[in-house]
Specification:
By secondary structure, this protein is an alpha/beta fold. It contains seven helices and ten strands. The longest helix has 12 residues. The two termini are about 15 Å apart. The relative contact order is 0.16.
């Protein structure tokens, strides 16, 4: 379980208590969930793996931010090339793909296979913090050479349906756990974890 778009220590504390595995920090100024490397560095994640979401930075900038913010994983959320990803150890790279951009599942499968040597994990998303969902049953036939996470509009009202439809290895939640853009709700976090653990 990854909770993305984190910026407040109290919410991070709560997510850790609930059992979240990953804490996502977004380094993208247009996002209402953007944090600076300095902010991220000050936030304690209590053993949750630290993930940085990158959209426009150069490889050198990503490397510097990863060092300052003490990141465990680098999430490439800007359509970066395989050559870009090759600047980093593959096991630390989360490759984001957007199924809605592909005309067919076969085309998506081709890119999954193409990017596999330069990442250790995949994330299928509907849009960055958009709240939109994917056609979950259609993803069930894909073959992943690495673990994969499902993202896009996941929250207490639909997470069980999503899991049943396509059996991802992990879930990445963001906007549907917010009381307002960029502000995570402790109540919604508790609700979704209660559903997943019952």
């Amino acid at each position: 379980m990854k909770i993305c778009g984190m910026s407040e220590q109290s919410v991070i504390d709560h997510a850790a208590e609930l059992g979240a595995d990953m804490c996502g920090f977004i380094f993208y100024p247009p996002s209402p969930r953007n944090v600076s490397p300095e902010q991220a560095a000050r936030l304690e994640t209590h053993g949750m793996k630290r993930v940085g979401v990158f959209v426009t930075q150069s490889a050198d900038e990503v490397r510097a931010i990863a060092r300052e913010a003490r990141l465990d994983f680098i999430q490439l959320h800007g359509g970066q090339s395989a050559e870009f990803a090759a600047h980093f150890p593959a096991e630390r790279v989360i490759r984001v793909l957007w199924p809605k951009k592909y005309a067919t599942l076969e085309a998506l499968q081709t890119d999954i296979d193409f990017f596999a040597p330069t990442c250790g994990m995949f994330l299928l998303d509907a849009g960055m913090g958009s709240g939109m969902t994917l056609d979950w049953p259609s993803l069930a036939g894909l073959r992943f050479p690495h673990p994969w996470m499902l993202s896009g509009g996941l929250g207490p009202d639909n997470v069980e349906e999503a899991l049943a439809a396509c059996s991802p290895d992990g879930l990445d939640m963001n906007s549907r756990l917010e009381s307002s853009p960029g502000r995570k709700s402790a109540e919604l976090l508790s609700r979704v974890f209660a559903q997943l653990t019952r």
